[in-house]
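tool=predict chain=A
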Amino acid sequence: MGIKKIIGKENIGKLERINSPAVFDFLEKYAAHCRPDSVFVSDGSEQDLIYIRNKAIEKGEEAPVSFKGQTVHFDNAADQARDNKNTRILVSRGKDLGASINTLERGPALEDVHSIMKGIMKGKTLIVAFFCLGPENSPFSIPCLQLTDSFYVAHSENILYRQGFNEFVRR
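tool=predict ok
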């Protein structure tokens, strides 16, 4: 499955502004592996940020509150990210982060994660979001690429992190 078949003209146009075969190869790899029905690429524009927030509401991942433009999200009590007993940090062989942090060796753990991810986005939209840790256009910039099928996750990250699409374009 080629990503171009499921991404749409507008979203492919956004990606074509980024001169990085590595980004496209990464997206192609995970779109083929996770098998989403569609792909949405956020360029960090106000229009895209509003679209993501509205989709989170539409899908029931968030609910509007009485303040215009504000939403609320309640986590599921069984959400693994909040389950310290079953959450693991992937580390290189021999790396020890201390007794209070559960770790797994990166190689075998990634194989397990990839087996779980196979086809996991069927019937869903793959959201591609770009962020920048540190200031844009700086030697301290760290560009980041997020893939998720949760509009809530994308919306939360849009609030927490600097938009980084332009940093990817610049590089």
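Helices lie at 4-7, 9-16, 21-34, 46-58, 106-117, 151-160, 165-170. The two ends are 28 Å apart (CA to CA).
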